[in-house]
Protein backbone atom coordinates (compact mmCIF):
# COMPACT_ATOMS: atom_id res chain seq x y z
CA UNK A 1 0.00 0.00 0.00
CA UNK A 2 2.79 2.38 0.92
CA UNK A 3 4.63 1.54 -2.28
CA UNK A 4 1.53 2.34 -4.30
CA UNK A 5 1.19 5.74 -2.63
CA UNK A 6 4.87 6.53 -3.26
CA UNK A 7 4.59 5.52 -6.91
CA UNK A 8 1.45 7.63 -7.23
CA UNK A 9 3.20 10.66 -5.70
CA UNK A 10 6.19 10.23 -8.00
CA UNK A 11 3.84 9.96 -10.97
CA UNK A 12 2.03 13.17 -9.99
CA UNK A 13 5.33 15.00 -9.49
CA UNK A 14 6.64 13.65 -12.80
CA UNK A 15 3.51 14.82 -14.65
CA UNK A 16 3.77 18.22 -12.99
CA UNK A 17 7.43 18.56 -13.96
CA UNK A 18 6.64 17.39 -17.49
CA UNK A 19 3.90 20.02 -17.72
CA UNK A 20 6.24 22.73 -16.44
CA UNK A 21 8.94 21.60 -18.85
CA UNK A 22 6.51 21.63 -21.79
CA UNK A 23 5.28 25.09 -20.83
CA UNK A 24 8.85 26.38 -20.49
CA UNK A 25 9.76 24.81 -23.84
CA UNK A 26 6.80 26.58 -25.51
CA UNK A 27 7.86 29.91 -24.01
CA UNK A 28 11.44 29.41 -25.20
CA UNK A 29 10.20 28.57 -28.70
CA UNK A 30 8.11 31.77 -28.66
CA UNK A 31 11.18 33.75 -27.61
CA UNK A 32 13.18 32.10 -30.40
CA UNK A 33 10.46 32.87 -32.97
CA UNK A 34 10.16 36.50 -31.82
CA UNK A 35 13.94 36.88 -32.02
CA UNK A 36 13.90 35.55 -35.60
CA UNK A 37 11.18 38.04 -36.56
CA UNK A 38 13.13 40.93 -35.07
CA UNK A 39 16.32 39.78 -36.81
CA UNK A 40 14.40 39.78 -40.11
CA UNK A 41 13.55 43.45 -39.61
CA UNK A 42 10.19 43.39 -37.83
CA UNK A 43 11.14 45.90 -35.13
CA UNK A 44 7.53 46.16 -33.93
CA UNK A 45 7.67 42.67 -32.42
CA UNK A 46 7.99 42.34 -28.65
CA UNK A 47 8.53 39.41 -26.32
CA UNK A 48 5.38 38.22 -24.51
CA UNK A 49 6.38 35.73 -21.86
CA UNK A 50 3.50 33.99 -20.04
CA UNK A 51 5.30 32.37 -17.16
CA UNK A 52 4.99 32.64 -13.40
CA UNK A 53 8.70 32.30 -12.81
CA UNK A 54 10.19 35.70 -11.90
CA UNK A 55 13.34 34.83 -13.83
CA UNK A 56 11.39 34.28 -17.07
CA UNK A 57 9.39 37.47 -16.58
CA UNK A 58 12.60 39.40 -15.94
CA UNK A 59 14.14 37.84 -19.07
CA UNK A 60 11.18 38.97 -21.17
CA UNK A 61 11.37 42.48 -19.75
CA UNK A 62 15.11 42.78 -20.37
CA UNK A 63 14.77 41.49 -23.93
CA UNK A 64 12.02 44.05 -24.66
CA UNK A 65 14.16 46.84 -23.24
CA UNK A 66 17.02 45.66 -25.43
CA UNK A 67 14.78 45.72 -28.52
CA UNK A 68 13.57 49.23 -27.59
CA UNK A 69 17.19 50.37 -27.37
CA UNK A 70 18.08 48.86 -30.74
CA UNK A 71 14.95 50.33 -32.35
CA UNK A 72 15.86 53.78 -31.09
CA UNK A 73 19.41 53.31 -32.37
CA UNK A 74 18.06 52.08 -35.73
CA UNK A 75 15.67 55.03 -36.04
CA UNK A 76 18.50 57.38 -35.14
CA UNK A 77 20.73 55.77 -37.76
CA UNK A 78 18.04 56.19 -40.43
CA UNK A 79 17.53 59.81 -39.39
CA UNK A 80 21.26 60.53 -39.60
CA UNK A 81 21.44 58.86 -43.00
CA UNK A 82 18.63 61.08 -44.28
CA UNK A 83 20.36 64.09 -42.74
CA UNK A 84 23.61 63.11 -44.48
CA UNK A 85 21.88 62.84 -47.85
CA UNK A 86 20.10 66.15 -47.36
CA UNK A 87 23.33 67.79 -46.20
CA UNK A 88 25.19 66.61 -49.30
CA UNK A 89 22.33 67.79 -51.54
CA UNK A 90 22.25 71.22 -49.90
CA UNK A 91 26.03 71.62 -49.99
CA UNK A 92 26.02 70.65 -53.67
CA UNK A 93 23.33 73.24 -54.38
CA UNK A 94 24.95 76.00 -52.36
CA UNK A 95 28.39 75.36 -53.87
CA UNK A 96 27.15 74.92 -57.42
CA UNK A 97 25.18 78.17 -57.58
CA UNK A 98 27.99 80.69 -56.89
CA UNK A 99 30.59 78.47 -58.59
CA UNK A 100 28.59 78.29 -61.83
CA UNK A 101 28.05 82.04 -61.73
CA UNK A 102 31.73 82.72 -61.02
CA UNK A 103 32.87 80.48 -63.89
CA UNK A 104 30.37 82.17 -66.22
CA UNK A 105 31.74 85.64 -65.48
CA UNK A 106 35.34 84.44 -65.74
CA UNK A 107 34.62 82.81 -69.11
CA UNK A 108 33.02 86.02 -70.35
CA UNK A 109 36.08 88.01 -69.27
CA UNK A 110 38.35 85.56 -71.03
CA UNK A 111 36.48 85.19 -74.33
CA UNK A 112 34.30 88.27 -74.87
CA UNK A 113 36.52 90.91 -76.44
CA UNK A 114 33.62 93.35 -76.87
CA UNK A 115 33.38 94.07 -73.13
CA UNK A 116 34.18 97.62 -72.13
CA UNK A 117 36.56 98.40 -69.27
CA UNK A 118 33.60 99.32 -67.08
CA UNK A 119 31.88 96.02 -67.84
CA UNK A 120 35.09 94.11 -67.14
CA UNK A 121 35.43 95.87 -63.80
CA UNK A 122 31.82 94.98 -62.92
CA UNK A 123 32.35 91.35 -63.94
CA UNK A 124 35.52 91.13 -61.83
CA UNK A 125 33.70 92.63 -58.84
CA UNK A 126 30.84 90.13 -59.18
CA UNK A 127 33.26 87.20 -59.62
CA UNK A 128 35.13 88.28 -56.49
CA UNK A 129 31.83 88.47 -54.61
CA UNK A 130 30.91 84.94 -55.69
CA UNK A 131 34.36 83.73 -54.64
CA UNK A 132 33.90 85.33 -51.22
CA UNK A 133 30.52 83.57 -50.87
CA UNK A 134 32.16 80.23 -51.65
CA UNK A 135 34.94 80.88 -49.13
CA UNK A 136 32.46 81.87 -46.42
CA UNK A 137 30.37 78.75 -47.02
CA UNK A 138 33.41 76.47 -46.81
CA UNK A 139 34.73 78.21 -43.68
CA UNK A 140 31.35 77.92 -41.95
CA UNK A 141 30.97 74.28 -42.95
CA UNK A 142 34.41 73.32 -41.64
CA UNK A 143 33.86 75.30 -38.44
CA UNK A 144 30.58 73.49 -37.81
CA UNK A 145 32.21 70.13 -38.52
CA UNK A 146 34.97 70.99 -36.06
CA UNK A 147 32.47 72.06 -33.39
CA UNK A 148 30.39 68.91 -33.77
CA UNK A 149 33.45 66.66 -33.63
CA UNK A 150 35.20 68.50 -30.78
CA UNK A 151 34.25 67.56 -27.22
CA UNK A 152 36.58 70.09 -25.63
CA UNK A 153 35.22 72.31 -22.87
CA UNK A 154 34.83 76.04 -23.69
CA UNK A 155 37.21 78.46 -21.96
CA UNK A 156 34.73 79.84 -19.47
CA UNK A 157 35.24 83.20 -17.88
CA UNK A 158 33.34 86.05 -16.24
CA UNK A 159 31.95 88.17 -19.08
CA UNK A 160 30.18 91.51 -18.65
CA UNK A 161 27.44 91.64 -21.29
CA UNK A 162 26.88 95.38 -20.90
CA UNK A 163 30.46 95.91 -22.10
CA UNK A 164 30.73 93.18 -24.73
CA UNK A 165 27.46 93.85 -26.60
CA UNK A 166 28.26 97.51 -27.50
CA UNK A 167 31.76 96.43 -28.65
CA UNK A 168 30.28 93.91 -31.06
CA UNK A 169 27.63 96.33 -32.32
CA UNK A 170 30.38 98.83 -33.10
CA UNK A 171 31.88 96.32 -35.56
CA UNK A 172 28.61 96.48 -37.53
CA UNK A 173 28.51 100.29 -37.72
CA UNK A 174 29.30 100.38 -41.49
CA UNK A 175 26.52 97.88 -42.26
CA UNK A 176 24.01 99.75 -40.09
CA UNK A 177 24.95 103.03 -41.77
CA UNK A 178 24.68 101.56 -45.27
CA UNK A 179 21.23 100.12 -44.48
CA UNK A 180 20.14 103.40 -42.83
CA UNK A 181 19.43 101.61 -39.55
CA UNK A 182 20.03 102.92 -36.06
CA UNK A 183 20.20 99.92 -33.72
CA UNK A 184 17.96 100.03 -30.66
CA UNK A 185 20.00 98.99 -27.63
CA UNK A 186 18.36 98.26 -24.28
CA UNK A 187 20.97 97.34 -21.70
CA UNK A 188 20.95 97.78 -17.92
CA UNK A 189 23.07 100.59 -16.45
CA UNK A 190 24.76 98.13 -14.11
CA UNK A 191 27.14 95.31 -15.11
CA UNK A 192 25.55 91.98 -16.00
CA UNK A 193 27.96 89.07 -15.65
CA UNK A 194 27.56 85.63 -17.20
CA UNK A 195 29.64 82.47 -17.35
CA UNK A 196 30.73 82.24 -20.97
CA UNK A 197 33.53 81.74 -23.45
CA UNK A 198 34.10 85.28 -24.74
CA UNK A 199 35.23 84.16 -28.22
CA UNK A 200 32.22 81.86 -28.60
CA UNK A 201 29.90 84.59 -27.36
CA UNK A 202 31.27 87.02 -29.93
CA UNK A 203 30.63 84.51 -32.70
CA UNK A 204 27.07 83.87 -31.50
CA UNK A 205 26.24 87.58 -31.49
CA UNK A 206 27.99 88.16 -34.82
CA UNK A 207 25.92 85.41 -36.43
CA UNK A 208 22.61 86.62 -34.98
CA UNK A 209 23.22 90.29 -35.84
CA UNK A 210 24.36 89.34 -39.36
CA UNK A 211 21.20 87.29 -39.74
CA UNK A 212 19.06 90.25 -38.62
CA UNK A 213 20.81 92.55 -41.09
CA UNK A 214 20.42 90.09 -43.95
CA UNK A 215 16.73 89.30 -43.49
CA UNK A 216 15.38 92.15 -41.35
CA UNK A 217 16.81 95.33 -42.85
CA UNK A 218 13.57 96.12 -44.68
CA UNK A 219 11.91 96.76 -41.33
CA UNK A 220 14.49 99.52 -40.63
CA UNK A 221 14.69 98.48 -36.98
CA UNK A 222 17.15 96.08 -35.41
CA UNK A 223 17.61 95.84 -31.67
CA UNK A 224 19.38 93.98 -28.91
CA UNK A 225 18.38 93.71 -25.27
CA UNK A 226 19.01 91.72 -22.11
CA UNK A 227 16.39 89.95 -20.00
CA UNK A 228 17.53 88.95 -16.52
CA UNK A 229 16.21 85.94 -14.61
CA UNK A 230 17.39 84.60 -11.23
CA UNK A 231 19.81 82.03 -12.69
CA UNK A 232 20.23 83.00 -16.34
CA UNK A 233 20.44 86.03 -18.60
CA UNK A 234 18.64 86.06 -21.96
CA UNK A 235 20.18 87.99 -24.84
CA UNK A 236 17.61 89.00 -27.47
CA UNK A 237 18.42 90.10 -31.02
CA UNK A 238 15.35 91.27 -32.90
CA UNK A 239 14.21 92.94 -36.12
CA UNK A 240 10.99 94.00 -37.81
CA UNK A 241 11.65 92.48 -41.23
CA UNK A 242 9.83 89.81 -43.21
CA UNK A 243 10.23 87.33 -40.39
CA UNK A 244 10.35 83.55 -40.44
CA UNK A 245 7.50 81.55 -41.95
CA UNK A 246 5.66 79.35 -39.47
CA UNK A 247 6.62 76.16 -41.30
CA UNK A 248 10.30 77.14 -41.12
CA UNK A 249 10.44 77.82 -37.36
CA UNK A 250 10.90 74.19 -36.17
CA UNK A 251 13.85 73.67 -38.53
CA UNK A 252 15.47 77.11 -38.50
CA UNK A 253 18.54 75.89 -36.57
CA UNK A 254 19.15 72.80 -38.70
CA UNK A 255 22.31 72.54 -40.76
CA UNK A 256 21.96 74.24 -44.16
CA UNK A 257 18.20 74.58 -43.75
CA UNK A 258 17.00 77.68 -45.54
CA UNK A 259 13.45 78.90 -45.90
CA UNK A 260 11.98 80.57 -48.94
CA UNK A 261 13.35 84.01 -48.04
CA UNK A 262 16.94 82.80 -47.93
CA UNK A 263 16.67 81.12 -51.32
CA UNK A 264 16.41 84.64 -52.73
CA UNK A 265 19.84 85.23 -54.24
CA UNK A 266 19.98 88.75 -52.85
CA UNK A 267 19.47 87.49 -49.30
CA UNK A 268 20.94 84.01 -49.28
CA UNK A 269 23.34 83.14 -46.49
CA UNK A 270 25.29 79.96 -45.94
CA UNK A 271 22.55 78.25 -43.96
CA UNK A 272 25.09 77.46 -41.25
CA UNK A 273 25.28 80.61 -39.13
CA UNK A 274 22.28 79.80 -36.93
CA UNK A 275 23.39 76.17 -36.54
CA UNK A 276 26.83 77.32 -35.40
CA UNK A 277 25.21 79.77 -32.96
CA UNK A 278 23.00 76.99 -31.51
CA UNK A 279 25.98 74.67 -31.14
CA UNK A 280 28.04 77.32 -29.32
CA UNK A 281 25.15 78.29 -27.02
CA UNK A 282 24.54 74.69 -26.00
CA UNK A 283 28.25 74.10 -25.37
CA UNK A 284 28.00 76.84 -22.75
CA UNK A 285 24.98 75.29 -21.04
CA UNK A 286 22.44 77.66 -22.55
CA UNK A 287 19.37 77.46 -24.79
CA UNK A 288 18.46 79.26 -27.99
CA UNK A 289 14.98 80.01 -29.34
CA UNK A 290 13.17 82.00 -32.00
CA UNK A 291 9.75 83.63 -32.24
CA UNK A 292 8.45 85.47 -35.28
CA UNK A 293 5.49 87.60 -36.27
CA UNK A 294 6.28 88.56 -39.90
CA UNK A 295 6.66 92.32 -40.47
CA UNK A 296 6.12 92.89 -36.75
CA UNK A 297 8.95 91.37 -34.75
CA UNK A 298 11.31 88.42 -35.07
CA UNK A 299 13.33 87.60 -31.95
CA UNK A 300 16.31 85.28 -31.66
CA UNK A 301 17.14 84.80 -27.98
CA UNK A 302 19.67 82.72 -26.12
CA UNK A 303 20.42 82.17 -22.46
CA UNK A 304 23.67 82.08 -20.49
CA UNK A 305 24.33 81.13 -16.89
CA UNK A 306 24.31 84.18 -14.63
CA UNK A 307 27.09 84.71 -12.09
UniProtKB/TrEMBL annotation:
One Pfam family assigned to this protein is: HATPase_c
Query: Can you state which reaction this protein catalyses?
Result: ATP + protein L-histidine = ADP + protein N-phospho-L-histidine
For this protein, the parts annotated as crossing the membrane are 6-22
**According to its record, what are the GO cellular component terms?**
membrane
- On whether ATP-binding is a keyword of this UniProt record, the answer is yes
Q: Which GO terms describe its molecular function?
A: ATP binding; phosphorelay sensor kinase activity
What keywords are assigned to this protein?
ATP-binding, Kinase, Membrane, Nucleotide-binding, Phosphoprotein, Transferase, Transmembrane, Transmembrane helix, Two-component regulatory system
Compartments it resides in: Membrane
Entry keyword Kinase: yes
Q: Where is the Histidine kinase domain?
A: 90-307
User: Known PANTHER family for this protein?
Assistant: HISTIDINE KINASE 1, TWO-COMPONENT HISTIDINE KINASE
- Name listed for the protein in its UniProt record: histidine kinase
Amino acid sequence: MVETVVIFIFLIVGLFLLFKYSHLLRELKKISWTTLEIRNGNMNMRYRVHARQPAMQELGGELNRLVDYFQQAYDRMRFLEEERKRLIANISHDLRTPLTSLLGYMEALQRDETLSEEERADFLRIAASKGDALLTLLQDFFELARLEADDSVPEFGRVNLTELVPEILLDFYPEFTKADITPIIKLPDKPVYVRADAAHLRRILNNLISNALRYGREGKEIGISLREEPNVVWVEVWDRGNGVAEQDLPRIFERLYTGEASRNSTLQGTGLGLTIAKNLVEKQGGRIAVTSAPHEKTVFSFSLIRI
